[in-house]
TrEMBL record:
Lineage of origin: Eukaryota, Viridiplantae, Streptophyta, Embryophyta, Tracheophyta
Gene Ontology cellular component list: chloroplast thylakoid membrane
Topology versus the membrane: Peripheral membrane protein
Protein name per its UniProtKB record: Photosystem I assembly protein Ycf3
Natural source organism: Dipteris conjugata
Similarity comment text for this entry: Belongs to the Ycf3 family.
Domain of life: Eukaryota
Alphabetical GO biological process terms: photosynthesis
Length: 169
């Protein structure tokens, strides 16, 4: 099967792909690293087009090939995004945890975990369970605090939520 990155006929849309291919030829990398990157790039392309099954397949292939822990941490993060989009929040949280195990510094994973926990807190309110709601909101607050601590100028909305709900400490 032709890699997704080679299927797009629009020359403008293919420009980033062409540049990435040139960089892969110039930068000294192993064949394994090149294949991992190609699968990862194809996964991102499929994901951006809403082709989540194809994206997941590419990410799983990339994960089997990628050996750099930092680069590898982005793969489960993106798989988590797919599960979040599909409403599979428990699975998404598992993949965000995997991303953080490989690289403890991506604030996006922490922020996404906070969003899911906040959503679950809202669901608990609708179900009439204020204790569960508070627990989910407290967990969301912890994730938000960690995310904000990494790049303090980001996540202004999260900072405001922490102040409004008096969970900033």
């Amino acid at each position: 099967m032709t890699p997704r990155s080679q299927r797009n006929d629009n020359s403008i849309d293919r420009t980033p792909t062409i540049l990435a291919d040139i960089l892969l030829q110039i930068i000294p990398t192993t064949d394994r690293e090149k294949r991992a990157f190609t699968y990862y790039r194809d996964g991102m392309s499929a994901q951006s087009e809403g082709e989540y099954a194809e994206a997941s397949q590419n990410y799983y292939k990339a994960m089997r090939l990628e050996i750099d822990p930092h680069d590898r941490s982005y793969i489960p993060h993106n798989i988590g995004l797919i599960h979040t989009s599909n409403g599979e929040h428990a699975k998404a949280l598992e993949y965000y945890f995997q991303a953080l195990e490989r690289n403890p510094f991506p604030p996006q994973a922490l922020n996404n975990m906070a969003v899911i926990r906040h959503y679950r807190g809202e669901q608990a309110i609708q179900q009439g369970d204020p204790e569960a709601s508070e627990s989910w909101f407290d967990q969301a607050a912890e994730c938000r605090k960690q995310a904000i601590a990494l790049p303090p100028s980001n996540y202004i909305e999260a900072q405001n939520w922490l102040r409004i709900t008096k969970r900033s400490r």
